Amino acid sequence: MKQVPSNPKLVMDEAVKIINFIKSRPLQSRLFSLLCEDCGSKHKILLLHTEVRWLSRGKPLTRLFELKAELQMFLSDTSFNLKDRSYDKTWLFRLSFMADIFQKLNELNLSLQGKQTTVFQACNKITAFKRKLNFWIICVSKREIESFTLLSEFVSDNDLDNVFEQLVQHLTSMRACFEKYFPEEENTKLKLNSWIHNPFLPTLQKPESMSNEIYESLLEMSSDTSMESLFKTTSLNDYWCRIHDEYPILAKMALNILFTFPTTYLCETGFSTYAATKTKYRNRLDADLI
Q1: Which helix (H) or strand (E) element contains residue 191?
Q2: How far apart (Å, rounded) are the C-alpha atoms in residues 175 and 132?
Q3: What are the sequence ranges of the domains in the chain?
Q4: CB-based burial of residue 60 (10 Å sphere; 0-12 exposed, 13-18 middle, 19+ buried)?
Q5: Which end of the chain is more exposed for a tag (fewer CB within 10 A), N or C?
Q6: pLDDT 10s digit of each residue in the chain, 290 long?
Q7: C-alpha to C-alpha distances, 24 to 44, 49, 60, nearest whole angstrom
Q8: Rounded CA separation 117/171 (Å)
Q9: What's the CA gap between 71 and 190, in Å, rounded?
């Protein structure tokens, strides 16, 4: 999503300028908040976009789109050069799509986070999203956009047919980027090690890279009902750690793959914890709360 096509990129840049026009001026921000309160709006403030946290841009775009009526009233008496954007149906059409697609990317990003997330789970999420992209391309080309909430609501109230092709191009370019960063070859490699994810499958096949001796050990373990009970009651990482003494070679092979960082979540968590020590909270007397 950092490589956004020209038209959606222009909408994104102009949306950020509109938000900054209001949020960067305290008086403007307070007046806009009062206007939203008088109108009984669901939200009373806009959200700032942070370029460093580029995945967060879905929320500011969604908030901007949901407050488009209030934005029209607020900007009508100003000399702001982008005030007409809130009346431009094509611009709002693209904005609603950008808000929806970034929201879906945010959901994907959140699903990949967690201390117990394995490379198998991350691969499954990425594969599912690529399949969704293929499905969305077909749906948008047929004008079936129920998967995009804001876009669907906007199109139901406005007759726009000449810009759907741009959405198809955008989704197609996004699919190409996903294929570039997450090639199918990597998914195939993980499938060859599917015994790690579930060694108790009844159709367990011998991996090509595994010797006969190790495979016999795998068959022995997969036939042990006590091991199967342990597998069902513990996490994947804990299971292979706990059987290390009894099946050291199998456990080592499994842990070499499982201990690979599927995302940067743990690194960023550690950095955030370290950064928190630089704040005022480090001065609290109760060390147990730190």
Answers
A1: helix 184-192
A2: 10
A3: 6-187, 196-258
A4: buried
A5: C
A6: 566 667 778 888 888 888 888 888 888 889 889 988 888 888 888 887 665 555 566 788 888 899 888 888 988 888 888 888 888 888 999 899 999 998 998 889 888 888 888 888 898 999 999 999 999 999 999 988 899 999 998 888 777 666 788 889 889 989 998 998 888 877 777 777 888 888 888 777 888 878 899 889 999 998 999 998 999 999 888 999 999 999 999 999 999 888 878 888 888 788 877 777 777 666 655 555 54
A7: 16, 12, 14
A8: 27
A9: 49
Backbone angles phi, psi at 143, to 5 degrees: 65, 25
**Nearest partner of 80 among 126, 14, 177, 166, judged by Cα:** 14
Question: Ramachandran region of residue 16, left (φ > 0), alpha (ψ -120 to 50) or beta?
Answer: alpha
> For residues 273 and 290, what is the distance between their CA atoms, to the nearest angstrom?
10
Please say whether the beta carbons of 247 and 199 come within 8 A: no
AA identity, residue 220: E
- Residue whose entry in the numeric block shows the structure tokens 């809130």: 86
Residue 167 CA: distances (Å) to CA of 90, 93, 112, 159: 12, 10, 26, 16
